[in-house]
Structures are given as structure tokens and as C-alpha cells.
Amino acid sequence: MVELPYQSDPSVGGLPSINVLWSFCRRSFCLLPPFLPLLPCHLTRAHPRAVVKLPFSHLKMPVRLIAADDWRPSSMTEHRLLELEREGLLCPRTSSSRPEWIALAADHREPRPPKGYVVSFAKFHRHDLGSPPSCFMRALCLHYGVELQHFSPNVVTAAAVFAAVCEGYLGMMPRWDLWLHLYRGELFNAPSGTTWVRKPVRAGCLNLVLKTGKSKRPCEYILVELTLNHAGWDSQWFYLRNDNDLFHAYTERLISERPGHWSYGVVQAHQPRLDPILDALKKLREEGLTAALVLSAIHHRRVLPLMSRLLRMDEMGPGVLSLALEACQMSNEAPADDEVVARVRVAVSA
Length: 350
Prior knowledge:
Strand content: 5-15%
Number of domains: 2
Mean pLDDT: 83
Structural class: alpha+beta
Order of helices and strands: EHEEHEEHHHHEEEEEHHHH
Shape: globular
Distance between the termini: 34 Å
Largest sheet: 3 strands, mixed
Low-confidence stretches: 1-54
Radius of gyration: 25 Å
Strand order of the largest sheet: 3-8-7
């Protein structure tokens, strides 16, 4: 609700003035609320202390969508993809006939992936996406009904942190009901430069928001402060092999309206099942665990949380067979501390 204070003529028994309401609407770049001309005639003057409450729904115009922009030409050359491979963030190519990834020519302006490939982005892999995807990553695609290009970099980071917290700190596989309890999906449409007019985006339309409506919600999870600076990420696309069609196939689909199930939570009757886990998460937060520390541990261990692996992160300790451990790690040598810090700073805002 919006509270509108008004001046009035004290000689008339004091109620809001139509002229003042109209002036407020003009200052707010809003149209006159449709109910306003129907107000009774005695609402022509306001008491000096009178306040009229208008719902926000009467102060907002419906957003109009226009055509989406074209794809930005790809800037991902083979040299840049080989750098990701050397850093252990992209699977190395092992086949010339069906390579794990395909670099594109400089004049490649619109995705047309071959059969068995999807469109991926370098930023996703710097934020710990792996292929073939884990069960949790596949569940995200199925629940939100999106293709890989519909994810935003921060969604990939939030999912990677969540999976690592479940595996490495809680000692369990990522729990779907816990995810639904913590996050809801939001749709991003790009501004067009005109008020109330926006346009769908071809990449990065799915965003995540931590559910903080209840007073206790902000303290139920570790501190996750992700960067808002992803300039140019949507031009860093290439083709990623889609083993066993675990990702949804690329179809050029645009999402212009948010599906209702993106905001689904946990059934109330099942909420008590999460209480012990939420207590453990609260203790982790009190001990100082943050998304930055989780990402640092991920890179030191050379593990991609959203990639299918033989072992959970908490199982990758002393006594594990070296062959099983090597199968879960993306490189033979741990990255230097400075490199880990640089990777974390790309993902988090603090």
C-alpha cells in the first residue's frame, strides 16, 4: 500500500482532493487510477491530517513485451576454450568425431548446435558447471522446464554452492525439498529503454531469489552474496556435447511469462522433516561459513559440484582409492591460492 498525505481546506469536513490525487499520479508517471472518477462528491477536500491508502496495483501499468534482441556473436575461440580445459573447468576433448565441446568461427552469429549438442557458456563452467550433469542439475532443468541457455550465471553458482554444502558439509546428497524451501525462481526480462516495456532474453531468463519473507528465513542458510557484474557473458557461447540427452535439447524457445510452479515450496506437512537440516545450516552460518569459502573449497578440491561423479565430496578423503578419487577431480594438480581467489572473486560480490 502507498500512503498519500494531502493538504486540504479546513473549512470543508476534510477528505482527499481529486486534484491532489491527480497531481500525485502525474508525478509518479502513472495513469489516473480507474476508480478515481467514481469517488463520491464529498471526497473533494481533505482534512489536514488525512491519509488515503492506494494499493500498488492501481499505481502500476501492465508490462508490455516486445521482440527479443538477436543473439550476440560468439566470442569463444578454440584458444579460449583450451584455457578452460587447462584450468580443469571443461572436460578435455577425447574424440575427433564427436568432441566434448566445439569452438565456433568468429562470424558465427546464431546458435545452430549439431544433434547431440547444446548451447553452453564459458561463464557457466567458470561457475562450476560440469558435463555430464549431476542428478541435481538435471532436476533443476526438469523442475523449471528450461534449457541450459535459460540459466543465468548466478543460478549456476547458487546451485553449485548448494550442492557442495549438502555433500561436503551436511554429508548428504542435495535434497530437493530443502532447495524448494530456500529458493524460488524469477523471470528476467530485459529493459527496452521505454517505461513499462520490456523484452524477453534468449539467455539467462531464469533467476533465483532466496525466500526471505519470514523473519527467520535470512538466518536459515549460509551467507550467499553473488556478483551482479556479468558483462558480456552472453557472447561467450559454444557447443557442449549432451551425453545421453541429460540436458534438454536446444530449441530456441523464449520464456516470456513466469510459470507458477517456479515459486513452489515445500508441502506444509513435510516441513518438520527439514528442521534438523535447517538447524545444522544455522550452525554452519554461525561458524562463519559463506558462499565464498564453499567455492574456495570446491576449487581446491578440483571438483565440479554440478557434474556427475562417483563420490560425494564428503567421501573424497583419506583412505579412498586413488583411481576413484582421480575420476572425480578435473585436474591432476591443485590450483595456486591466487588463482582460487581470482575464481571466487568472479562469482561473489564480497
